[in-house]
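Table S5 (text form). Sequence records supplied for joint modeling of the two-component complex.
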Amino acid sequence: MNKQLNTIIAVLLAIFTLASCGGESSKSGGSESGDQLTGAIRIDGSSTVYPITEAVAEEFRAVQPKVKVTVGVSGTGGGFKKFSRGETDINDASRPIKEKEVKVCEENSIKYVELTIAYDGLAVLINKENDWVDHFTVEELKKIWEPSAQGTVTKWSQIRPEWPDEEFSLYGPGVASGTYDYFTEAIVGESGASRGDYTASEDDNVLVQGISGDKNSIGFFGLAYYEENKDKLKLIGVDNGTGAVIPTLETVKEGTYAPLSRPVFIYVNDKASARPEVDTFVKFYIENAADLVQDVGYIPLPEAEYQNQLNKFKDFSKPQQ
Amino acid sequence: MSKIKSNRLKDNAFKYFGIFCTFIGLVMLAIFIGNILIEGLGRIDYDFLTNLPSRKAAKAGILTAWTGTAWILGLTAIIAIPLGVAAGVYLEEYGKKNRLASIVEINIANLAGVPSIIYGLLGLEIFVRILNFGGSLLAGAFTLALLILPIIIVATREALKAVPDSLRQASYGMGATKWQTIQYQILPAASGGILTGIILALSRAIGETAPLIVIGALAYVPFVAKTPMDEFTVLPMQIFNWVSRPQHEFVINAAAGIIILLLITFILNGIAVYLRNKWQKKVNW
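The corresponding structure-token record, covering 606 residues in total, follows.
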């Protein structure tokens, strides 16, 4: 009996020891000869920006395989907490840094640069056969989606009297998605607050099918998915008080399609950008953003704007070099 | 007569209600597992296990996630098992049954019920910041070890309690010291129960995501960890990350990841059941 116990303990220990073997400890910081950089780049922050940064990190690995880029998803705020303590080199952010976070950075003497890397836009969609809706105002969208609308606002005529006296049905991303958070924040005014009686799916194709098969449907999701399903759905403009604006690459880039579009950022720490691997990575990020951003479903900045961001970063990182 | 009838009726009614309740859970589980298997089984192949994370769902793999989980599991076991078993042995065999002991006992029972995110916050402050482990495997393993310590301690104590006193007295009667008695009689006799507890505790640890997110487990890690100080990701993190992606291909990836995670859990639980049965047969007192 005792023998068996010992055997098992020995086997367990052997497994763990094997697992922890592996030699070759990782080096951090500093550049090596030639083009091959080494070191580690720590990135954290928004889960909205994560797909872009992941795509860039993946491509960067093909160019600089020895640089260890890691990306976390603590959220914009959680990411800034680490960034302002100097624990991360780059922070992904789906909103600009807040006053409070700026202060913490100053207290810890952390200097940083804000770089805009893409736009994130939401599309409001209806069925192709729907001929009465020309646009929605932000007010109307709020009336439709706010939590108190559940069970009380159910007919088109309640939104605008001249619309038909028929019930509408709602489609949108699930409550766990960043898209949902963003829509509710922009429209209802509070992130995560909406009515619950709508068809929710994390799969945008389900939403596309739902909206295209139901004459009385209203739905929303990322603009990139509309681009792939143009023929099946009707895109509706949103009026924020300055006239109805249809979201297009242009209106999103110009910022006129508000409030359902927003820029997303990365923040780079000054001590980090002085390191060659971070410097190279950020430049690589901006130079390749246009393609990769579209790849993962976001809207790129205009070419000239990427050049501006690149110059902004070069100016920022110059004094340290 | 009618009294008997109505009592029989009640008896039957409760029986069917009980069956109904049992099946709700089972049916849910069957639907869930069936759904996952249909979605994800076709996605699992050698490449899926050996590829790095990628923005292209078809190319993405779980190499860093499952190796991270294996690392975490190993390190957590190394830290938690000696501490938990030793604490359990002390409390059960050496500790005096006084007021202090009962306070300790209540606290350990309470600790087993503390939400895991709280352990994450504790780990963030102590291991990540004060001890300066950073968001490393070591910090994660220590945090999860804290999380499962109470479970191991309680399981150890229960297993020790189940060892009949006659065994102890016989050992003392032969002139053995306390430690000799524990080492050669009590621990071997209780090891089935202890190992079961340890394995169940470890299977809880591998499913935990919240405390690891807090201490800084990452979503994108393109290298397999080589030392305990490396940064890491784990399977639940990778699954969580994929589920929140809008593209359906990533959801399929998540389903495949869930199958792998379930597989690891089932294997661990299987080992626990096997050990328990084995020891129950061997030990005759």
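Note: The domain at 38-119+263-317 of chain A is CATH 3.40.190.10 (D-Maltodextrin-Binding Protein; domain 2).
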